[in-house]
Specification:
alpha+beta; 6 strands; single chain; about 30% helix; about 170 residues; globular; six-stranded mixed β-sheet
């Protein structure tokens, strides 16, 4: 998959993109006020997605200029889930990040359109996304971004994390 839109190419991530993708996700987490990930564990998760494409995918946006074609200016990661309520598989956008310099240039739109194309190729007709906390300063614009693409509010999500086992 490769898509050129306004000087941006969106393509499936490759192993060579690992450090850039991890850096982008860490930039997203920092912006959201979360803890960043260590490169080793985040890299392992990235490689697992590349190795098992049926479980999800990673898309990257890069400048269409050959000398900058390895520079990741945006990324979108998806997990493929299965649920009875959706009558089969659905896509869950896990991360969508655009570098500060790439914002307002259509990078996010190009990534989302490539995601929709990938979903169509896999016969996936439902896409969901979890928004950041309402305390996030850009919550309203993030919510508006997804609403403008046809998303509807379905309610807040919650998370539970297993406590560490004693001795680990």
């Amino acid at each position: 998959m490769s898509q050129d839109r306004a000087g941006i190419v969106v393509r499936a991530a490759t192993a060579a993109d690992e450090a850039s993708v991890v850096d982008g996700i860490n930039a997203l987490l920092a912006e959201l006020g979360g803890r960043t990930l260590d490169a080793a564990s985040a890299g392992a998760a990235f490689r697992a997605l590349l190795d098992r494409p049926a479980t999800g995918w990673v898309l990257v946006a890069c400048p269409a200029v050959p000398s900058r074609s390895s520079e990741v200016v945006g990324l979108l990661t998806v997990s493929v889930q299965h649920a009875i309520r959706t009558r089969g598989p659905y896509a869950l956008i896990q991360e969508l990040w655009v570098s500060e310099g790439g914002r307002g240039l259509g990078v996010g739109r190009a990534l989302f359109e490539a995601c929709v194309q990938q979903c169509a190729e896999q016969d996936i007709s439902v896409v969901e996304v979890g928004l950041p906390s309402e305390r996030f300063p850009e919550f309203a614009s993030t919510q508006a971004y997804y609403r403008a693409r046809g998303f509807v509010d379905t309610g807040p999500r919650m998370r539970w994390t297993a406590p560490k086992l004693a001795g680990s």
